[in-house]
Design a protein that fits this description.
By secondary structure, this protein is α/β, with parallel strands linked by helices. The protein contains 13 helices and 8 strands. The structure holds thiamine diphosphate and iron/sulfur cluster.
Length: 306
């Protein structure tokens, strides 16, 4: 695990693999996460991206930001195409190449879930990373099944009716060697998570909460604050499951303590997408967050008792 100080030192020694001049929105946290993921993975990495913002923000031809091979893939096929790349390298006897699927939540939680479930069940040696901006942002902010309940999107103008699907827990239930959640706005968390995943053989899944100013409707200068509030409120829990054992990650420990948990309304308030929430709905969402935090605390306790 590196600290922020060590990471800053490494900044000058590690090659830059996501170059300046991408065509992402200003302050895009997904780009920040990809940049630090690549610093951890190194230049022997191949990226496969199903249709998502990343296909656009890698740059407009003939310019491109990633300094590693990058395959633009069909929306449903992020995991299956990566599995093909892995099989190809295995056939060539090349073992030191990281194959990374870099996908949005729509391409993961909705249309891509069967390809993902199949690839990890077949024990594909790759990293699948979902940057979760909680909606179809590339096509103009439509809801996905990772969009939280009551969010206003262009397809849910009165607020979404269903809760966010917890795909990281669904993947964890596949019992693969490494599953983790992390925060795009925290480079140390991203870097350490990808370093850990890189060292593991077999399927690895990383779910990255990626605050998105235009889609969530907050001031872009608040991007890091939004990521921190998601964690401090317990709305998004940082955890990892390594070889079946669940661990909560540093920043989320505090959120498991009800006394220290930031009220969820403080997370919702700066975001225009939650502008239609009534007091009753905020209190329902607070109960939902509290239940999920309690469930995680019980699980950690029961594993500690084993
Ligand atoms: C089969 C299919 N349906 C629809 C589209 C259009 N499309 C391209 S990207 C996208 C949304 C992607 O959303 P997500 O995966 O969440 O990534 P984000 O745009 O948020 O980065 C859609 C609907 C497509 N490319 N293929
Ligand atoms: S819409 Fe959101 S995720 Fe997509 S490039 Fe812009 S800030 Fe990034």
């Amino acid at each position: 695990m590196v600290s922020l100080k060590e990471l800053i030192k490494q900044e000058s020694t590690k090659p830059e693999l996501f170059l300046a001049g991408s065509s992402a929105c200003a302050g895009c946290s997904s780009v920040l996460a990809l940049r630090w993921a690549l610093k951890a993975l190194g230049k022997r990495t191949v990226i496969v991206s199903p249709a998502c913002c990343a296909n656009v923000y890698i740059g407009l031809w003939p310019k491109t930001s990633p300094a590693v091979p990058y395959i633009n893939m069909a929306f449903a096929a992020g995991a299956s195409a990566a599995a093909g790349v892995v099989a190809g390298y295995e056939a060539l006897g090349k073992k030191d190449i990281n194959v990374l699927t870099w996908a949005g939540d729509g391409g993961t939680v909705d249309i891509g879930i069967q390809a993902l479930s199949g690839a990890i069940e077949r024990n594909t040696n790759f990293i699948y990373a979902c940057y979760d901006n909680e909606g179809y942002m590339n096509t103009g902010t439509q809801r996905s099944s990772s969009t939280p309940k009551y969010t206003v999107t262009t397809t849910t103008p009165l607020g979404k009716h269903m809760h966010k699907k917890d795909v990281a827990q669904i993947i964890a239930a596949h019992d693969i060697p490494y599953v983790a959640t992390c925060l795009a706005t925290d480079p140390v968390d991203v870097y350490n998570t990808f370093m850990e995943a890189k060292a593991v053989h077999g399927p690895k899944y990383i779910h990255i909460l990626s605050p998105c100013a235009p889609g969530w409707r907050f001031d872009v200068s608040d991007t890091v604050k939004m990521g921190n509030l998601a964690v401090e409120s317990g709305f998004f829990l940082l955890w990892k499951q390594v070889d079946g054992r669940m661990e909560i990650k540093g920043k989320s420990l505090k959120a498991l303590d009800k006394e220290k948990r930031v009220p969820v309304k403080d997370y919702f308030k700066p975001q225009g997408r939650f502008r239609k929430l009534t007091e009753e709905q905020i209190s329902e969402m607070q109960d939902w967050v509290d239940r999920r935090c309690d469930r995680m605390a019980r699980r950690l306790q029961s594993e500690a008792d084993l």
